[in-house]
Amino acid sequence: xxxxxxxxxxxxxxxxxxxxxxxxxxxxxxxxxxxxxxxxxxxxxxxxxxxxxxxxxxxxxxxxxxxxxxxxxxxxxxxxxxxxxxxxxxxxxxxxxxxxxxxxxxxxxxxxxxxxxxxxxxxxxxxxxxxxxxxxxxxxxxxxxxxxxxxxxxxxxxxxxxxxxxxxxxxxxxxxxxxxxxx
Length: 183
Hints:
Blueprint lengths: L4 H18 L3 E8 L11 E6 L5 H17 L5 E5 L6 H8 L5 E13 L2 E16 L3 E14 L6 H19 L9
Helix pairs in contact: 2-4
């Protein structure tokens, strides 16, 4: 019996779910907070994802998932992806200083591959407070090392990136790094 198009549509999510259960995505966030800045950064806050060597297959889905997670909490943030050629941290901060009170920098820090599939992605996340006095001052408020792992299936990369976005936004809210909007 040959599967029909509709039966394949039903079968694919089941196979994907089973594969995800066998090699579940996990995210480990090890964060530290600068005790000099105990309060939350008020909105607006910008998010900059440095693409580096990972390419758009990793950064564009992450941008979408981060926007979704912040929107669920009624938080409007500007999320931007920049490539290696464009990345100059001082220029990024200077360009956003007038428009944002804070900046979340997400920088991929490598990964581990097995059999041609990326099984682990490491990220460095820094949250910077931008104060506007006569001159702009920047301070690191929160820093995290993020380790995302899963089985060796290529299609699990998307699930892993989605979980990273969910857990990162949850950690930023729970650690009171970024302020929730007032009602």
